[in-house]
Description:
There is one protein chain. Helices cover about 35% and strands about 20% of the residues. The chain contains nine helices and eight strands. It starts with a strand and ends with a helix.
Amino acid sequence: xxxxxxxxxxxxxxxxxxxxxxxxxxxxxxxxxxxxxxxxxxxxxxxxxxxxxxxxxxxxxxxxxxxxxxxxxxxxxxxxxxxxxxxxxxxxxxxxxxxxxxxxxxxxxxxxxxxxxxxxxxxxxxxxxxxxxxxxxxxxxxxxxxxxxxxxxxxxxxxxxxxxxxxxxxxxxxxxxxxxxxxxxxxxxxxxxxxxxxxxxxxxxxxxxxxxxxxx
Length: 216
Ligand code: DX5
Ligand code: ZN
């Protein structure tokens, strides 16, 4: 099943409740929450209290994308704040600590996920694959919404789809960055089943039609 996860980085933060309540009628499957620390990426966004606040106003699963250094320090807090899927970057710590973070996330009853930046090769997911419920392939350099889709990530996406099918078929495969109706189709053809969309979703005049088009 194809799922759409609108990234609230492109929502109107003055009207965040309104924009989040509009996601269910638009047919969204998840709420994508981008957490940035100004270290792992050159931008700072939102943190634990905002995740907890969002938890109170939606029943949609919260798909929380941590773009922070050494995320093991904060995974318990983000789980307790109400995350349903919690994603850490493989580049953000040692393999040992990343595995410990995934274990900790699952111990909290939350779905554990890893993400890879554009320059990180497909093979980098292999040590984590048995312990993951979702893999997120970045199709832009993480840090900002509204960037151009990197089509050259498609061979990597396809390779990770093959690893998932062979080793952990229940694992979801998500893409994030520059997703619109056209690029979503390319990502689906290369094996993605969860599509994050920030600017394209929130700029759309008809978000329900946008979601339908992305899934079609
Ligand atoms: C980028 C974030 C994305 C971002 C996507 O670092 O992880 O989730 O919001 O925005 P668009 O869809 O505008 O590229
Ligand atoms: Zn994201």
